[in-house]
Amino acid sequence: MLPLKDLNPTRRIPIITYGLIVINVLVFLWEQSVPVNELEEMFLRLSVVPATVIQDPLALDTILDFFRSMFFHGGWAHLLGNMLYLWLFGDNLEDRMGVVLFLFLYFLSGIVASLAQILIDPSSPIPLIGASGAIAGILGGYLILFPGVRVRGIILLGLFARTAEWPAWAVLGLWFVLQLFNGAVALGVQTGATGGVAFFAHIGGFITGVVLTWIFMTLVPQPPTEQRREVLYERARRYRY
Questions:
Q1: CATH code for 2-238?
Q2: Cβ(180)–Cβ(100) under 8 Å?
Q3: Which end of the chain is more exposed for a tag (fewer CB within 10 A), N or C?
């Protein structure tokens, strides 16, 4: 299912989530002004390249590459897909965790995501770009904090499509299972000079988000289960029509 809306209102404006979206879009628009040959060279110089990271993993420039990579994207579909998921699920995580913990989860998930892909293919000369790993961490955190929230979206059935409403655990759980399946299929497959989808980055980011959110829930007192359920029912009533 392609999610389009989660029935989960926030208490405050998610400034950080919106700010990350704006920065990603602005960086991508700037990329469009760079000639293609120079853009490829820039990605090799300023983003995570597994073969380069292995050579000098503790260099300052290598560390900066992990952060810069999260703001580069390879095309409109890449950008819009990532920003859709960040917009849908990031606001509630920021609202629940607060700015500092949310940013910590976002960037650490992105870093671990890159490391996971490097571990799978350390000799790859292909740059790892995109916010997918960081956003996968947000999906993992959302699954832990809001598993019962209803998510509305579209299911594509060949030439036809229908709307559906599934619980978040089903939407995000299915997404993660697809990453595992595609990652297993992609093992040992040569993607060519243009690269492909870094499935193990998605897997690493998602697991990081799950673990960090579980730690957050353990350290920070949470409302009783029944109270959280009542809050979700109240939110659902707001969206009944």
A1: 1.20.1540.10
A2: no
A3: C
For residue 191, give the amino acid letter: T
The sign of the dihedral angle between the CA atoms of 118, 76, 102, 64 is positive
Which 3 state secondary structure label does DSSP give 192?
Answer: coil
Question: Please, what is the end-to-end C-alpha distance for the chain in angstroms?
Answer: 21
Burial of 40 (0-12, 13-18, 19+ CB in 10 A): middle
Residues in the chain: 241
Residue 123 is given by DSSP the state T
86: left (phi over 0), alpha (psi -120 to 50) or beta: alpha
pTM confidence score: 0.88
In angstroms, the CA 135 to CA 55 distance is 27
31-87 pLDDT, tens digit each? 999 998 899 999 999 999 999 999 988 899 999 999 999 999 999 999 999 999 999
